[in-house]
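To start, one record:
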Amino acid sequence: MNTETLQHPQGAAAGQTHAHDTVESVSGLSPKALHYSRVFELFVVAAIIMLFAGAIHLHVLLLAGDWDMFLDWKDRQYWPLLSPVVMIMFPAALQGIFWTYFRLPIGATVGATCLMVAVSISRPASFMWWTDYPLNLVLPAQMIAGAIVLDVFLLVFRNALFTAIFGGFAFAFLFYPSNYTIFAPFYVPVSHQGMMASMADLIGYVYPRSATPEYIRIIERGTLRTFGDSASWVSALFGGFICIFMHYAWWYLGIAMSSMKFLPNNAKVMALMGTKADVKASA
């Protein structure tokens, strides 16, 4: 039996050269035009990254708001509950897009990284440089650890439902312990004018912000503390339960928003576009 051996390029450099020659021959572009095309693609990728970073940052600011901004708002009850529910939405949508169209389990990590890049730019610029507000009092929470675990669950299960059940729950449950090492020094109890408060609360007393009532808050007013000494784990468990449904919903929302739909070219569609349909042709 006669067999033919296919000649494949050996090594990374040879493979890159072979791929470049293949693209150049298929596209029919000159080397100079192909170079400009690659540069344009890099600009498009940079614009998409900045667009998603700004969108995720605006989304977290509008929904999580001060819980992700000021230090004394990062309490043990509402912060581990609200922040993961808000922060999982865009990463879940990106995860669905990357996995459905590219089979890449990196969507959640990309979304978390875009958020951290946007926060790392806006937080020093808007607080430290503009108003001289101490930067360590507005430290953002990170969700990269939970996003990596979420992508690992997708890589293992390769299914949106099981990724939402296990990965979405792990994303919220790991939020508090992954951020605890950053904010642990500010949870130290101190005595202030005969009252016991945390260092974060004391900082909130010393550095006033707006005079509106919502910034004069009492930490942990709810009843979750009746379940034990600390409400953080109860909030994390409940946040993980909500994140299961949030991840599943935003996964398919991301796929729906990235899908291309076409409408039939009939008289109604042409009227919506501002053109008049030919009566004889439509008849």
